Amino acid sequence: MKKLVIGVDIGGINTAFGLVDENGDLYAESVISTKKYPYFDDYKAYVADLCDAMHAMADSLSFDYELAGIGIGAPNANYHKGTIETPANLWKFREDEPNPDESRRIFLLVEDIARCFGGVKTLMTNDANAATIGEMVYGNAKGMRDFIMVTLGTGLGSGFVANGEMIYGSDGFAGEFGHIIVERNGRQCGCGRRGCLETYVSATGIKRTAFELMATMTAPSKLRDIAFADFDASMISAAAAQGDPVALEAFRVTGEMLGRALADIVAITSPEAIFLFGGLSKAGKLLFEPTQWYMEENMLSMFKNKVKLLPSGIQGKNAAILGSSALIWQSMQQ
């Protein structure tokens, strides 16, 4: 009997899920709203509705199959404990909450989802790690035992694979590449510190860079006509592709920040390749070329010209579902 896995991607706006086979083929998919359940006391209703929607999807197939497991990608997910711990944009306390103790915001999602499906194998990791495992199972990292995945979206996520294994660390939260300090007393980060890499290298980071450049450069730019609230990274990509000097400089600065940071991290893990994934990476050579140049320029000599900088092989609308489903397939292979 054919085996399928449910892959679940929990985002701040929506939760997407689908049935995937070991080759990465998607047989059914669906979505529910996450933002409909914003508060701490909405969590149980969210789980109940998610389980109902997943069961409905699972029952929609016209052939018999074995559900081999459920893989979940979520923010602030702890792989070791199966928990989501104090997520920034999920299940917050209400404004009038009398005792908003953040230590209470630990959600036993793996246990709760497994219970809905009769104890089927359920695993969870953060969204960047899920993308990393997806790259290893379905993408361009097949056969690689040492590589790094960098996800470039609203923030910067990352996953590190060494000797064929994900690096989770003692507490399940290893690999926060986006929160290494690259500029002392630099830009304020959502984590509460200043100068984190993701404040420079992300969709929001390049937007901040573009506005800083418009304040210091006199070159004409179509970006000057766009209000900050209406501005997004895709506009910078479009302008750069047309030779806009401010947009091109924004990508150079972004590539410099990322390339320098990657050169440092290579000295620690010595990966075979580094993969860039997510919306900002779709800019292609606008981002890859300066990143590669500054990475090699700052690389320790023993690593120069050894580490490949590559696009993700799972880039696409179902990448998050594929990544989370890969958790189960990888655990079965192991």
How are the elements arranged and paired?
Elements: E1 3-10, E2 14-20, E3 26-33, H1 43-59, E4 66-73, E5 77-78, E6 83-85, E7 106-107, H2 109-116, E8 122-125, H3 127-138, E9 147-152, E10 156-162, E11 165-166, H4 203-216, H5 233-241, H6 245-269, E12 273-277, H7 285-298, E13 308-311, H8 319-333
Parallel strand pairs: 1-4, 4-8, 9-12, 12-13
Antiparallel strand pairs: 1-2, 2-3, 5-6, 6-7, 9-10, 10-11
Helix pairs in contact: 3-8, 4-6, 5-6, 6-7
Question: Which key features would you list for this structure?
Answer:
334 residues, alpha/beta, Nucleotidyltransferase, domain 5, 2 domains, five-stranded mixed β-sheet, 34% helix
Describe this structure in words.
Helices cover 34% and strands 20% of the residues. The strands form three sheets. Strands 3-2-1-4-8 form a five-stranded mixed sheet, sandwiched between helices. By secondary structure, it is of the alpha/beta class. The chain is built from eight helices and 13 strands.
From the spread of the alpha carbons, the general shape counts as globular
Strand order of the largest sheet: 3-2-1-4-8
As a percent range, the share of strand residues is 15-25%
Question: What's the mean pLDDT score?
Answer: 94
Give the fraction of residues assigned to helices.
25-40%
Give the helix tally: 8
| Elements, N to C (H/E) | EEEHEEEEHEHEEEHHHEHEH
How much is the radius of gyration in Å?
21 Å
Q: N-to-C terminal Cα separation, in Å?
A: 21 Å
What's the architecture of the largest domain, going by CATH? 2-Layer Sandwich
CATH topology of the largest domain: Nucleotidyltransferase, domain 5
Per CATH, the class of the largest domain reads Alpha Beta
Unreliable stretches covering 5 or more consecutive residues: none
How many strand elements?
Answer: 13
Report the biggest beta sheet as strand number plus sense, adding barrel if it closes: 5 strands, mixed
Question: Based on helices, strands and strand pairing, what is the structural class?
Answer: alpha/beta
**CATH fourth-tier homologous superfamily of the largest domain:** ATPase, nucleotide binding domain
